[in-house]
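Let us work through a complete example step by step.
Step 1: write down the sequence.
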Amino acid sequence: MSIYVTVGALDAARSNTFYDAVLATIGWNQHAEFSGWRAYSEGGVGDGFVLWVCQPFNGEPATAGNGSMVGFKVKSPIEVDAFYQTALAHGGTDEGAPNSRLQYGPQWYAAYVRDPSGNKLAVVFNG
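Step 2: predict the structure and record it as tokens.
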């Protein structure tokens, strides 16, 4: 089993549309799916870190974790920009536009968004 994280989905179809589009901007694709769950990985091969988008197992409503965030490392500032713009175009909300974050180092270029269910995502180039 790979290292993974799960984020809850209030509306699986809407969340899947969001993640299909946003993750494609950084070379990630779906590699597995079953009743209410969809898995994404770099290149869609299922190796390495995996993101699962799912309806909560306990049947309770999905909620965003306070202080929780999933961060994706990318290969260029262009991928940061594309991820951010695609997120906003697919129902995501702004949590910090693409910009250099000098407090984290001279090469730290990042953006922050929330998915349609409120889960916070970061996309970071640290060249």
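Step 3: interpret the result. The CA atoms of residues 26 and 79 lie 6 Å apart.
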